[in-house]
Design brief:
This protein has 90 residues and is an alpha+beta fold. The chain has one domain (13-89). It has helices spanning 13-23, 47-55, 77-89; strands spanning 27-30, 37-39, 42-43, 59-61, 70-75. It has a 5-stranded antiparallel sheet with strand order 3-2-1-5-4. β1 (27-30) and β2 form a beta hairpin.
Length: 90
C-alpha cells in the first residue's frame, strides 16, 4: 500500500496502526468523499493512508452524518479480517 510495507496484504505499519485504532474504538472519520481519520481526538498525520483505507473499503463511518461531520469509525468485514492478526500480534 505504501512504503515500509510489512503486510498483511501490503499495509504499512502506519496503516496497520490506524486499523488497530479503529478496531479499538478510538477513531472517528469525517463524512466525506475523502474522509479524514482522527485517533484519540487528533487528526492522523497520514491522511493519504486514511483515504486509501477508506477507498479500499477497510474503514467506514459507523453511522450517517452531515457532510463534514466527524462520526465514529468502524472496520468493514474485510477490515476486521485484516486486523484480527494485527491485534493478536500486538
Amino acid at each position: 500500500m505504501t512504503e515500509n510495507t510489512k503486510d498483511p496484504e501490503g499495509l504499512s505499519y502506519r496503516a496497520q496502526a490506524m486499523l488497530r485504532a479503529v478496531a479499538q474504538g478510538r477513531a472517528e472519520i469525517t463524512v466525506s468523499q475523502e474522509p479524514d481519520l482522527y485517533v484519540d481526538g487528533l487528526p492522523c498525520s497520514d491522511q493519504i493512508a486514511a483515504h486509501l483505507l477508506a477507498h479500499a473499503g477497510l474503514i467506514r463511518p459507523a453511522r450517517d452524518g452531515t457532510p463534514g461531520a466527524r462520526v465514529p469509525a468502524e472496520l468493514s468485514e474485510t477490515g476486521q479480517n485484516l486486523v484480527e492478526p494485527l491485534v493478536a500480534a500486538a
